Request: fold
Amino acid sequence: MNVIEKIYSRAKKEKKTIVLPEAEDRRIIAAAKIIEKENIAQVLVLDKGKVKPEWKEKFSQQYYQLRKAKGINEEEARKIIDEPLYYAAMMTREGLADGFVAGAAHTTSSVARAAIQCLGIDERIGIACSCFIMIVPDCVYGEEGTFIFADCGIVPEPSAGQLARIAVATAEMAGKVLEITPRVALLSYSTKGSAQGALIDKVRLALAQVKTMRPDLLIDGELQVDAAIVPEVAEIKCPDSPLKGRANVLIFPDLEAGNIAYKLTQRLAKAMVIGPLLIGLKKPCSDLSRGCGIDEIVNTVAVTAIRAQG
Reply:
């Protein structure tokens, strides 16, 4: 059974309700039919015609209470909730759905904004961020070719503390969704002191903070990517690293590096990509690339459903 088959199988075991608030996109409609046919999840394809007036008013009042300190008035709240993206986010907040997936027709910033404002930040993590599941064909590295990349979509220049929390949240997601033991590498252009500088110091500080937060987590840094994922290189550059060149969770030092890396891996290595999965929130939700295919939508819904399971 390959990675995708395992994900589908796990999603089916405890069927969840996922909202897709982009009914105007034909890819969403096609994906919803597959999801229902394969019994992966119950999907609610939402457009303005399916917004219930009584729920809209309730959600508007709730959103107003959440955002009035930011200067939103009640009329503005009603207009915002009239948008299916925010309506879906409030449905998820209120437990009328278990999660939502959007992004085929919205930017990542729009999806993230709705998710953060409506779902709220998980206080235990303290930051909203994102990760991708990357499945690289004919690859012996990572988890038999499967990796988790973070953060590739949300936090532009994370501090050491933010980097530490991104690492913890991503490792937890990897364990829950893929049922693997996360082996986390904090990436850099330096391996264990081969270079010096403020950017490297940030990664080292992040490692120290992760070890305080989660002393049980298998993590190391700072590591160049070859030292993180190639055992033969690790033996030369960092023979004492607990990862031994077998990292399956790659934490990038900033958004620029992460975003470039995932797109290069997707296009040049023909990797299957799931995400971005938004993490660090109180309820599960996921973004989609606006260039996503139907299969990517199906896969992302399946992962979001697993994240919503008990």
